[in-house]
Every structure is written in C-alpha cells, then in structure tokens.
Amino acid sequence: MSATEINSDYDVVVIGARPAGAGTARLLARQGRRVLMVDRGQYGSDTLSTHALMRAGVLQLARWGVLPRVIAAGTPPVRSATFIYAGEEIRVPVKPRDGIDALYAPRRTVLDRLLVDAAGEAGVQVAYGTTLADLMRSADGRVTGVVLHQDSGATTQVRARLVVGADGRRSAVARLTGAESTRQGPSAAANVFGYWSGIPVEGYRWYYRPGLSAGAIPTNDGHTCIFASVPAAQFGAVFRHDLEAGYRSVIAEVAPDLAAPMRAATLNAPLKGAPGQPGFLRRSAGPGWVLVGDAGYFKDPLTAHGITDALVDAEYLARAIAEESDQALLGYVEDRDRRAAQLFDITDRIASFAWTLDEARALHKQLAKAMAEEVTGLITLTQEAAPV
Prior knowledge:
By secondary structure, the protein is α+β, with helices and mostly antiparallel strands. The chain has helices spanning 19-30, 55-63, 67-72, 108-121, 172-177, 235-240, 243-254, 256-262, 306-321, 326-352, 357-383; strands at 9-15, 35-39, 80-85, 88-93, 125-128, 130-137, 143-150, 155-165, 181-184, 189-197, 204-209, 212-218, 223-231, 266-267, 272-274, 280-282, 285-286, 289-291, 297-298. The chain starts with 8 loop residues before the first strand and ends in a 5-residue tail after the last helix.
C-alpha cells in the first residue's frame, strides 16, 4: 500500500502509521478533513510489541468497527488474566460489560494493517516509504507544513494547517520542534520477546518474582508471545553474552510452567531484546503541531498498556483538533497528563522491580482501578456528541 503522488496541501499531515497515527488520521478524516498519513516503514510490517490490549483499547476498536476484523483475522479471545506471584496464581476473569466480552492481543502485522485500512476507507491518503526530513515554518515560527523524503528519491514540500507527530518515542516531530520532556520516570525494565508454537495458554499470564518478571500472551497463528523481564541495569549481565540462554534462564526461574513446554516447542523467529527506556511525558503541542501516542507519552511496556494508550489518546486528540484552536491542543496535553499520571506512576513502580510480592499485588490492584477509571472516562467522553 503506497501513495505515489502526494499533493501540496492538506488540512493535517500525520507522521506515523501505527495505532496512534492511524487512529487519529481516521477520526480526523471522518470530521471531513483532508489528511495525509506517512510512514517510513512498509505496509503490514512488524514491530516489537507486547500486543496485549486492555479493555479501553478493545472498546475503541469496537467503536471504530475494527474489532470484527481483528477477530476475523484469527486473533484468539482473552477471557482471563492470571497473575502468578512466585507460584501463587490469582485468576481475574474478563467480565462482559461495556459491550466487550473478551480482550485481544493481535500481532502488529494484523492490527496496524487493519487500522491503516480503516483510515484509508475514511478518506486518509497514505504514503509508506516516506520520511519526515524537516518542518516548514512561517516567519513567526508556526509550523505550516512538512518536507518529506520518499524512498523513490523524491523530496516534497507539503503545506498543512496542523502536523501530528505519531512517530514513536524517538519522534522526529518532537526533535524538530524541541519538545522537551516535562516528566521523566526513573525506572525501566529490559525485555526479551519470543514467539512460540506449541505452548497454548489460557488468557494473559503475568509472572512475578523478586527482581524478575515474565508474560505469556496468546496471539495470531497459534503463537504465544513469551517475554522475560529484568531491571534495565541488569540487561547486559543477563542477556548480552547469550540472549537465548539468559532468556531461558529467566523463564525457568520465574515461570517454570512455561520453561518445561518450551523445551519441546518451536521458536518461530529469532528472539528480540529491548534494553529498556524510562518513561516520559513531553511538551506535546505548539503552534501548528501536536504529538500523540508514544511520541508524547511513553511508559514502560511491562504493564502492556502502550497500544491501549495510543488508541485512547487518538480519541481525545481528534476531539481537541475539532475545536480549531491552539488553546484546545494545549488543553488536550494538560488533560492527557492528568489522565496519565496514575498509570504512569504505577507502571514506573512496577518497572523498578523494587517491590516485594505483597507490594506487587497491591500495585496491580491499583493498576486495575486506574484502568477501570480510564474506561469510565472514555465512555463518558464518547457519549457526548462526536465532533464533525
């Protein structure tokens, strides 16, 4: 999927075609705006992810009409989340409510493609293999467009009333606008991910022992995403010299019920590791530009909330853009920071690994409460008249 011809003028240019970008672009197109969405990657490409969607994320997909497509792609329903604290299991069923009776963890090769398809059907023009080279500005410094470089070698200047940076935690839009961090978390977890066949699991399974964590997440094609986590400061000692040996060692200690079947199961792709990065919130709006998703707000993936954050963030941003003012965008950022505060703090504390098992249980109860409040806020928001 590629747009070979890019026009010279749009209402909005969205940089990044992952969940935050595609969700925002779709909503803006449904407001009647002329939207261009670009991405330096390729349609349907994979990316490192825990995949797990929480209730607010599934609710967004249902409201946007994308959830039936996720299900049709063979994404297994998740009807429980089990927390295992040094062998003690606490199973939490997914209760049917808000029109949602299961959670899902689609592969990014599935989810991102479906979200881009939905954006295209809403009227968004999509250009892959296209990189943001620079921002255009007026004499008073307001962002007025973008300079794009395409893999074909073409360089194009595109005017826009608004540029949306949905290009991840290493956002070029953030760099070019000087969007500094307004808050930085002190903690980070290092993670190694693998996709396995032959290890079926029931629902999400989250494992915790002092200084260690792991997760098992059922996803598409009969695969289970299994990740191992340690404090970021220990990434080198545990994983650097022998990634697979370190990975298997952590799983054997924290999740022995996974380690045994792994010996006879099939690892479907090379393991991928991430040394960890502390969470942050950025100054996320200015004259003619705004950030959404990980570009503006990133927290450690150990609580598997990133995709849900992106889908929810897109809704709030699109409604702010509908108000047609810089002040509304600044209000969106203030509201996002307020909504994010509790989840950010809890995630940072979990990613610190500086907890006892009793403290971990308490943190997960706080996390569940914060996620329930997130759903309540989203339902209240979406019961209001949608912006046109």
